[in-house]
Amino acid sequence: MTYTITPIATARSPYKQKFGVARQPGLVPAAEVCIELNPEFTADSVRGLEHFDYVWISFIFHGVLDEGWAQMVRPPRLGGKQKMGVFATRSPHRPNHLGLSLLKLERIETGKPVHLHCSGADLLDGTPIIDIKPYIPFVESKPDALSGFVSGKPEELEVVWLENIGAENLSESTQNLISQSIAQDPRPAYQNIPERIYVMNIEDYEVRFQIEGNHATVIEISVV
Fold first, then answer.
1. Is residue 147 domain-resident?
2. Fewer CB near the last or first residue (10 Å), C or N of the chain?
3. Does residue 4 surpass a pLDDT of 80?
4. Which residue intervals define the domain TsaA-like in the entry (predicted)?
5. How far is CA 176 from the centre of its chain?
6. Helix spans in 40-195 (H)
7. 146 in any annotated domain
């Protein structure tokens, strides 16, 4: 039997390219996303949702649809050297390219269209949203559950900014977004080239940085 899934909303995100997007929700608290519901969904569709702190967002990994999928993948948490079954990971390269994120619900605008403002996002700009559900702690929180090869939050990089590159012209929220995103080490797990300059497009900026050891240095920032 074949089913058709139609997106109900679109994510407006500061992440303009796949490189740099947080690998898991909640790792970059400063990453705010606006989920814009399609015009047919009115304020009635979100009535009562304002009483929940978190929401489950089901979405489509639209940025990798043309890359196919594989039975086994190399999770970044294992250094990109060990394979795991795709269903034992959260890889975007899945048979149906469906994703699930738990985001902090900051506020709701019930105009036309309806907007859900969330933080801790790991969504690429333009991501098609296919469902929204409230997070219910007593049902879904299992703090003592086994988590396989994923043991705790990944170690973060220490991020510093070179002087005189214009960082003082950025808002504090933008600086936090950039620093927190780089701190997650967006490099492919197998890549460790200290002299390489990485480029990340985030909000309206192109950010250039280098990584050596557990330190990252922002060396240039320009308006796109």
1. no
2. N
3. yes
4. 5-144
5. 15
6. 137-140, 172-183
7. no
| Whether residue 116 is found in the same domain as residue 26 | yes
Residue 80 lies in a domain: yes
pLDDT digits 0-9 by tens, 114-148: 999 999 999 999 999 999 999 999 999 999 999 99
pLDDT in tens, 17-40: 999 999 899 999 999 999 999 999
Whether residue 211 is found in the same domain as residue 115? no
- Total domains in the chain come to 2
Token reading at 199: 């480029």
Whether 15 and 123 share a structural domain = yes
Q: What is the residue range of 176's domain? A: 158-223
Q: What is the pTM of this model?
A: 0.92
| Residue 100 placed within a domain | yes
Closest CA to 156 of 14, 18, 29: 29
